[in-house]
Automatic annotation (TrEMBL):
Annotated ranges, domain O-acyltransferase WSD1 C-terminal: 120-260
Gene Ontology MF, one: O-acyltransferase activity
Protein name as annotated: Peptide synthase
Family annotation (InterPro entries): O-acyltransferase_WSD1-like (IPR045034), O-acyltransferase_WSD1_C (IPR009721)
Signal sequence range: none
Amino acid sequence: PGTGKSMAGRALENSLRLVHEFSEFLVSPEDSPSELKRPLLGRRSCRWSSPVRLSRFRTIARATSTTINDVLLACVAAAVKPRLGMTPEQLDEAVMHAAVPVDIRARLPDGVRPEEGEPGNCFGTVFVPLPVDGESALERLFRIKHETRKLKKSWQPGLAWGLTSCAALIPEPGRKPLADLFFRKASAVVSNVPGTPDTRYLAGCEITEQMFWVPQAGDIGLGVSIVSYGGQVQFGVVADEAVMADPAAFVEDCLKELEQFPG
């Protein structure tokens, strides 16, 4: 009986936490109007950076007690900042998020979670605040670290996965407003895919680089892809021409931010 009460108590606690986090997400402010929120033209351009050794990011992460992912997101935040079309005063008040897909396979309950080795597109989304008002590279990095630690403990990825999985069951009149709610709370999609550390070959030819492109999500016109492969990292960007005229400069700014870090 004691065990049953304990399990019931945990279930109630988890349910209340779920409702609380979902309510917080619903009432959280939408992203501020910016150049990244302009109506899309439907014409997209893509560019990718030259490779950077993964060890460079690892050294920065160790020197600052952060993660490689924190460093990558800080680079993106720095590159986004000058492209918002905001004054310093507006930046101080700006609300800006990146929608970041995360793997939630390990969090899924038995019966829902795919078996080991079985394919399955099990990902949720976290909305990471981008510190575009940060005055230095280290400030942006440590604020990213603080936010990602909070999100790792939250139910936000599971909520996003659950709503996405149930979208087909929602009547059409309610489906679009729900999707729009998500899209209004982010100005970019940033996806980080870790690849194999070993060099791969195709038909006897060495694959020197790999890249992927972030699919467009609703009215979000900026997608940033980050891929590690063979001990190197590359940034890629695909952007609607309405929100970014020069994606090549964007990826270069991501790399320039590395020069501001110790290590």
